[in-house]
Amino acid sequence: MPAVPTPRTWAVNDNLSAARLNTELRDMANFALEPPWCRLTRASTLPLTTGTYTVLTWPTETSDTYSLHDPTQPSRINIAYDGEYELISLVSIAANTTGVRGIQWRKNAAGNPGSGTLIGETHWYQPLTGSLTQPDVQYDRLTEGDHVEVFNYQNSGTTLNANPGWAIIRWTGR
Predict the structure, then answer these.
(1) Is 146 helix (H, G, I), strand (E, B) or coil?
(2) Less packed terminus of the chain by CB within 10 Å, N or C?
(3) DSSP letter at 4?
(4) What angle do CA 146, 117, 143 make, to 5 degrees?
(5) In the chain, what are the domain boundaries?
(6) How far is CA 25 from each of CA 19, 29, 34, 158, rounded to the nearest angstrom?
(7) Cα-flanking dihedrals φ and ψ of residue 80, to 5°?
(8) Is residue 82 within 8 Å of 5, Cβ to Cβ?
(9) Which residues of the chain have a pLDDT value below 70?
(10) pTM for the whole thing?
(11) What's the pLDDT tens digit per position in 28-62?
């Protein structure tokens, strides 16, 4: 990917041309108006084994600027530009009144909850009689070529389903 557009420092006698204006103004404005981001969803349930982190897969792209998601690796969101990213996920776990629920974002884990770098993690210690919806927001500085994944955890003593959910990642600045 090309670098994040950087404003030019103009000199007094710089000549203007269509190509230069397009590069310096149009391309920067287009990037600012629609920076890298994607929204991914899963419409089906996914079994979560008790006591382990399970990587979540996202088979559907509802929006994906800059091709951040590769359907052949449905758990990964690939980073196209260096910068600060906002990572948001919302996952609901089937009803059960026992144990803890958790969600984490990992960088470069390749589907393995023990690999890569932990970006952030949130746990809920009060399971409800109804399903528990887990919102999670993390921020991290990421580098082109990194990938991020969402992992879900529960320790109810039995397998529970992660219900349909979604994930969003968006570039927020250098």
Answers:
(1) coil
(2) C
(3) P
(4) 25
(5) 36-173
(6) 10, 6, 14, 57
(7) -95, -25
(8) no
(9) 1-3, 126-132
(10) 0.87
(11) 888 888 899 999 999 999 999 999 999 999 999 99
